[in-house]
Amino acid sequence: MNTYMDALNHQIDRLFNEALGECGTSGDHWAPACNVREDENEFYVQVALPGWEPHQVTLELKDKMLTVRGERSGGDMSQYLMREIPDGSFCRVLNLPASLDPEKARASHANGLLSISIPKREEAKARRILIEAA
Questions:
Q1: What is the residue range of 62's domain?
Q2: How many domains does the chain have?
Q3: What gap in Å lies between CA 129 and CA 57, rounded to an integer?
Q4: Going by fewer Cβ within 10 Å, which terminus of the chain is more open, N or C?
């Protein structure tokens, strides 16, 4: 049931972010594509940021919320004949399950993907219970 509620919360967050603008702002903000998954040990987020450098992106993990922000300038717009890779500012906010250990979060950036992994707390992981013979 907890996984169902987490999935429902994720969908509600996504709808609010799309309706109200990412991070509660309006204007020329855009939202990069994200993949989110989890397994029995960790929660994983991938953010598609082709051409972005790690110093142009900030991560904040607070109160079960992961905020990914970025800002960069694309230079002189008159130089482009076609432009589909966005620049400017972006912000994505993801609601995280309470079972995660934010102190052990890790992030890396390679090949245009920002990868974030946050381990689950030991008490939140599934445990195998041995059955004793009577």
A1: 2-122
A2: 1
A3: 43
A4: C
Residue 50 makes CB contacts below 8 A (sequence gap 6+) with 85, 112
Q: What is the pTM of this model?
A: 0.71
Instruction: Note the pLDDT tens digit of each residue in 32-85.
Output: 999 999 998 999 999 999 989 999 999 999 988 999 999 987 666 677 888 888
In sequence order, what E strands does 34-129 have?
Answer: 34-38, 42-48, 57-62, 65-72, 88-95, 106-110, 113-119
Q: Which CATH number is 57's domain given?
A: 2.60.40.790
Would residue 133 count as lying in a domain? no
Report if residue 134 sits inside a domain. no
Neighbour-count burial of 2, counting CB atoms closer than 10 A to its CB (0-12 exposed, 13-18 middle, 19+ buried): exposed
- Within a domain: 77: yes
The answer, yes or no, to whether residue 1 has pLDDT greater than 60, is: no
